[in-house]
Amino acid sequence: MPILAHTGHWAVSLIYFSPVVVVTGGIAVTAWRDRRRERREEDDSERAA
Amino acid sequence: MNRAALTAAWTASAACASLVAATPAAAHGLVGKQDLPIPRWMFAWSATIVLVISFVGLAALWTKPILVAAHAKRVIGLPALLDPLLGAIGVAWFALLIYAGFAGSQVETANLVPTSVYVMFWVGIPMLSLVFGDVFRPLNPWRAIGRFTGWIVQKAMGDVPDPIAYPTGLGHWPAAIGIFLFACLELVYSDGTDPSHLAALIVAYSVVQFLGMAIFGVRPWCAHGDAFGVYFGLFATLSFLRLSPRAIARRVPLSGTAQVVPIAGTIGLLCVMIGSTSFDGFTSTEVWRTMADWLRERYLDIGLSLRPAVELTFLTGLVLCTAAISALYLLGARGIRTVDRTRTTMELARKFAPSLIPIALAYVLAHYFGMFAYQSQAMAFLVSDPLGRGSDLFGTASATIDYGWISATAIWYVQITVLVLGHAAGLALAHDRALELYGSGRKATQSQYWMLGVMITFTCLALWLLSNVD
Questions:
Q1: Is the Cα dihedral B215, B219, B221, B226 positive or negative?
Q2: B21 — pLDDT class (breaks 50, 70, 90)
Q3: Is B9 within the bounds of a domain?
Q4: Which residues of B touch A27 (CB under 8 A)?
Q5: Could you report the predicted ipTM of this complex, rounded to two decimals?
Q6: Do the Cβ atoms of B460 and A31 come within 8 Å?
Q7: How far apart are CA B56 and CA B60, in angstroms?
Q8: Closest-CA residue in chain A for B450?
Q9: Where are the alpha helices (DSSP H) in B63-194?
Q10: Is residue B38 very low, low, confident or very high in pLDDT (cuts 50, 70, 90)?
Q11: A16/B449 CB distance under 8 A
Q12: B194 part of a folded domain
């Protein structure tokens, strides 16, 4: 496909999307931590009960 | 204000300052965007920082829903005659456009119609709507004609049968289709700026409007099916003024948008609005050029001649862009399900749909501000010579466009400011809706993690698209 043959012409514009990659990574980590903390809190409250 | 919030506020201010502090090149003539003090891609980082800090600030400072219950306060009453008078002005302008389109010069820059439709109507009215509220509603020629006809019929026939109830399932779909077709006219159809074609399409659109009004009634049709009435009406909700036939009221900023009740087709309409503007920018990119070459060759291979092959190529691009924007938004809505398993992705997408309204407006303003800044000046000579036949009705036929009044650098700063403000407004609306749905600030914030990702993607996408337009 020509679009792949011309990758060099447009790949440089991917730099505009670098914040998206960083923020998405940050969101994924934060969401995972939140879920883990909530699970731990649920376990603690069950144990206390 | 707690320490985290204070830090967030200061950092946001610093990031905002980094967006605008660079001195634009002296305002003499057109100045290239290359005069910017930092590479354009770095603005994507600055905008991202502003949005992330805004998100943190919202989480820390905005702990109760305030927009949904906010009330508008009446500022001034309006005479009853104003609404029909504005309607008459709208009808007169509408008639002039149709006449100019058919009877005037077919040179697009000499005829009143293309500039009126693509510059003043498509871009100018959203700007006016943002400031003054729904200015199109009283000026709407189809509504004015529909109301006047209804009044005449009632006077002549006495009791007229009630119109058919507007189907709930139809919702905003007629408006979404109408805006999509307008985008096709602008971006796909090869003769989209031809004055007589535009006039014929205005007539065709009018026929559909009058049929809709005759079947469902003027008010329900204008509120749901009139593509432009709905399109401008959604933007008008962002204004701090609420314009109604008998009064002007002021309201809490964004409260009008938060009170929009999304119905069937609202998401489709908003995605078409953002997708079509994105595609307009996308057509300037190298990615599109190589894609378009490839697609056009495939369409030629199946036996199409050049013109349909080119138009089908652009139609494919428009559909793909709209689909990509829809998929991105649904991904954000899907993310909300991490804290809300009781609702489906589509239900959540609909609940949060008003947050797309400021983004759609930001896209329109950012993408077309440059064109508007210059091309709107053409109205000075077009109103004096609407047919392009050499008349000089108001003595302004010899006016010209001043390309030096604003530099390209200044336009760039306006564009990024609008984009950042639009997306920050989208975040605020989504946050307020999350607080309304989930009560607790923590859960509301967690529900918006992925929506933040979507907003940042929209912002970076818009900046990338703008960076390709020279």
A1: positive
A2: very low
A3: no
A4: 449-450, 452-453
A5: 0.81
A6: no
A7: 6
A8: A27
A9: 82-103, 112-115, 125-132, 136-139, 141-157, 173-187
A10: confident
A11: no
A12: yes
Contact B449 A1 (CB under 8 A): no
Q: Which run of H or of E encompasses B241?
A: strand B241-244
Does residue B46 sit at the A interface (CB-CB below 8 Å)? Answer: no
* pLDDT tens for each residue of B159-178: 778 889 999 999 999 999 99
How far, in Å, CA of B282 to CA of B271, rounded? 15
Residue B277, number of CB atoms within 10 A of its CB: 25
What's the total number of domains in chain B? Answer: 1
**Residue B1: pLDDT band by 50, 70, 90 thresholds?**
very low
Of A6, A24, A27, the CB nearest to B290: A6
Report yes or no on B1 lying in a domain: no
Q: Which helix (H) or strand (E) holds B77?
A: strand B73-77
| Partners of residue B464 in chain A, C-beta under 8 Å | 13, 16-17
Chain A residues within 8 angstroms (CB to CB) of chain B: 1-3, 5-6, 9-10, 13, 15-20, 22-24, 27, 30-31, 34-35
| Token code pair at residue B413 | 């700063």
> What pLDDT, in 10s, does the model give residues B55-93?
999 999 998 999 988 889 999 999 999 999 999 999 999
In chain B, the residue whose alpha carbon lies closest to the alpha carbon of A30 is B449
Q: If you count residue pairs, one on A and one on B, with CB atoms under 8 Å apart, how many are there? A: 68
Predicted pLDDT of residue B26: 33
Q: Residue A41, class by beta-carbon neighbours within 10 Å (0-12 exposed, 13-18 middle, 19+ buried)?
A: exposed
Chain-chain contact of A10 with B286 (C-beta, under 8 angstroms): yes
Q: Which residue of A has its CA nearest to B292?
A: A3
Distance of CA B93 to the CA centre of its chain: 22
DSSP codes, B434-454: HHHHH-SHHHHHHHTHHHHHH
Determine, yes or no, domain membership for B77.
Answer: yes
Which residues span the domain enclosing B42? 21-467
Pick from A1, A10, A19: CB nearest B294: A1
Q: Number of helices (H) and strands (E) in chain A: give both, helices first.
A: 3, 0
Contacts of B208 (CB under 8 A, 6+ apart): B178
- DSSP letter string over B363-389? HHHHHHHHHHHHHGGGHHHHTTSTTSS
Residue of A nearest to B446 (CA): A31
* B230-274 per-position pLDDT tens digit: 999 999 999 999 999 889 999 999 999 999 999 999 999 999 999
pLDDT tens digits, residue range B347-367? 999 999 999 999 999 999 999
